[in-house]
Amino acid sequence: MTDIWEGIVEGKRAEHHHGWPRFEVDRDGWTRAGEALAQGRLIFAGLWGEKAAIHMAVLAEEAGKAAVLTLACPDLTFPSVGRLHPPAIRPERTAHDLFGLVPEGALDLRPWLDHGRWGVRFPLGACEPAPADGVPYAFLPVEGESLHQIPVGPVHAGIIEPGHFRFTANGETVVRLEARLGYVHKGIEGLMQGATLARAAELAGRVSGDSTVAYAFAFARAAEAALGIEAPPRAVFLRALMAELERSANHLGDFGAICNDAAFALMLAHCAVLRERVLRAAEASFGHRMMRDRIVPGGVACDLEPAGAAAIASLVKEIRARLPALIDLYDNTASLQDRTVGTGILKPELARQFGAGGYVGRASGRAFDTRRALPYAPYDRLTFEVPVMQEGDVNARVWVRIKEVEQSLSLIDQILELMPEGPLRVEIASPGTPVEAAAMVEGFRGDVLVWLRIGADGLVERCHPRDPSWFQWPLLEAVIEGNIVADFPLCNKSFNCSYSGHDL
Amino acid sequence: MDLILSFLIQAAQMAVVLALAPLLTGFVRKVKARLLRRQGASVIQPYRDLARLLRKEVVLAQNASWLFRVIPYLIFAATWVAAALVPTFAGGLLFSWTADLIAIIALLGSARFFLALAGMDVGTSFGGIGASREVMIASLAEPAMLLTVFALALVAGSTQLSTVAAVLATPEVGLRVSLAMALIALVMVALAENARIPVDNPATHLELTMVHEAMVLEYSGRHLAMIEFAASLKLLLYISLIACVFVPWGIAAPGSGLAGFALGATAYLAKLAVGGFLLAFFETSIAKMRVFRVPDFLGVALMLSLLGTLLLFASRSL
């Protein structure tokens, strides 16, 4: 068996790491992996710290393989990957904020999640008292004639999550956008350390409210892989059913919300009704509109209610009946098309470089879908298409969503048809020895990665949930450049990145 | 006696526009909500909003100048006077001799000038963006409006609104292409001037896309009430203006009896309702255009009004 990692990643394979291999590399190996990322031979999938180590997840996209690289850093320094490969910059800044790990040679050492309001520095590392006088955050300088800055947020006029956007504009044209995030840092990773698996699964489901199913799914898969157990077949199908319901609800909501940002409220009204139908079907099926805490390590917490299958079947019928009219409306409203077509173009090279997942990547020619690339049950038994478009504009991102809703409906049909009877969950025992695993699940925004280490006592030692937004936020900044200020809300909504999932 | 009567009628007109303006705004919102299959707020919600704002404390930015505090009243006064000049239910009012279309444009232009100043006064970036966009729109909307006025004046031989309405109500005018062009141009200008979709969105919460709302972001309390009231008055003014010029039927002639006034009032209310409904329907069926498309939109209005005027000149000389 030829190992696809040979020649790219050298290092000792860690024992007790399941799901994906984990390699313990030295500094040279780490840097070489960074170079492989920069050359595009690997895709960057996440970087997170630990007390005296740094981890990085990489994908070999063509081969459909993923791995975790670990560099022990007893002196709290590691060679910067962000220096070679920009998508790693923000995760490195975060690793510094949380653990005090210093990326050597990094281009940008400004704090990222740490706004100087925690009272301590490196809360998960040395946890030393923070200096009282906070340093003001230095936005990147912009030079040129007749430029002006527009600070937006973190508190916005609408009811959305907080984030600060610093525009530098020349009249209406955006010269540079710099986002500052971290306002909804909740300390999820800190809370997870030492938590029981059940508690940690709940926390994972609260990383980003609109993706609660995807996070719980990813966490449960990671936990099961680490413990070497498998969820019963019925539970696996129920999980996929919930995931597809969540995807449809969010895509429908986004479809309307994007149009509403072009002041076309009619679409929002129709889509909001459809989204509400999905949520009500979820309530009827699983007893919770957002299906929170329904996926647990070892299986699922509840069965499909007797009325649920019928509710979902009629939901699928209703969406199938009503969605074509909305698509026609979208397609035939010239004023709306004028806003979405050609606005906020994301170049395919950038989407690939940043490993952008979800509709952001798939609207820019990156055909990555975890369900297809790193298949997991039950998607390996279901047929579906991964819609890909090349244009990369707002319109393409809308269309990818529409097509994914159609695919989700077909998946829901198949799941209801194929769902076996049987038990819902298996018992979980303590592993007796520390075990680790990584798992990736396709949420509605893209690939949700969870890396987990469970201690011998069965408590979580370290868990890192990585939102797809990590690699979409920087692209939003690239997309708006050269566009006009007034088009930002439209571009932003078409990305719909998560603040909460990113800020952890 | 005549003087007292005409004074009373003029006073009634001023009171009527004041009383009806929030109702019209509420009606348009209600129709929009119903078209979106929402229940919508009650049509009298704008009155409640105004009452609430009047009760509330005014929060001023630290660096707000006296201008910032005075401007809401200036805007309200200018808009109210302008709205009172447009014949609504009766023509030939006491102020009719001043009810000149150009005077109305000048009043609204001053109000806008002051609003743009207020937007920049506090020095926030949104106020600046709003003011610059507003002035860009105005620089195209005002010429289009003036050319429309010229087209009307050529037909009626006067820029005085009562006279224009009276002349256009006569059958001799007939159907004219130039008037149709002037109507379309005036409607487009009205949409732009009132910050409606597709030029601006009165209901948006997206700071970066705002025009009118961006300028008034810093206002609160009674100041905001004045500005909101003025915005309602302006909407009423434009619908009344279009109605009085292009659908002048039913307006009570000077000296007509009580029945004439009653008929005029009913006709006026019907016109407002139709105008409000059409506005809501149009706004629901179209998306907002890109900011840089607005000059194209208003350019069309300008060209149409110019063409209308030229056509009238050409037909005269034949």
**Which two chains touch over the largest interface?**
A-B, 31 and 30 residues
Within the largest sheet of chain A, what's the order of strands? 1-3-6-5-4
Secondary structure: number of strands of chain B: 0
Please give the oligomerization state of what you see: heterodimer
C-alpha geometry of chain B: globular
Could you tell me the strand content of chain B as a percent range?
Answer: under 5%
Helix content of chain A: 25-40%
The fraction of residues assigned to DSSP E strands of chain A is 15-25%
| Rg value of chain A | 22 Å
Arithmetic mean of pLDDT of chain B: 89
Keywords:
heterodimer, A: 504 residues, alpha+beta, five-stranded mixed β-sheet, 18 strands, globular, B: 318 residues, mainly alpha, 11 helices, 0% strand
Care to describe what's here?
The complex is a heterodimer of chains A (504) and B (318). Chain A has helices at residues 27-39, 89-99, 188-192, 197-204, 212-227, 233-261, 265-286, 306-332, 334-340, 348-353, 358-362, 370-373, 394-418, 473-480, 488-495, 500-503, and strands spanning 12-13, 17-18, 22-25, 43-50, 53-60, 65-72, 77-79, 102-104, 120-121, 128-129, 148-152, 164-170, 173-180, 295-296, 299-300, 435-442, 447-454, 460-466. With 504 residues, chain A is α+β, with helices and mostly antiparallel strands. A five-stranded mixed β-sheet of chain A has the order 1-3-6-5-4. The longest helix of chain A has 29 residues, at 233-261. In chain A, helix 6 packs antiparallel against helix 7 and helix 7 runs antiparallel to helix 8. Chain A is 39% helix and 18% strand. In chain A, strand 14 and strand 15 form a beta hairpin. Chain B is mainly alpha-helical. Chain B has one domain (2-314). Chain B has eleven helices and no strands. The mean pLDDT of chain B is 89.
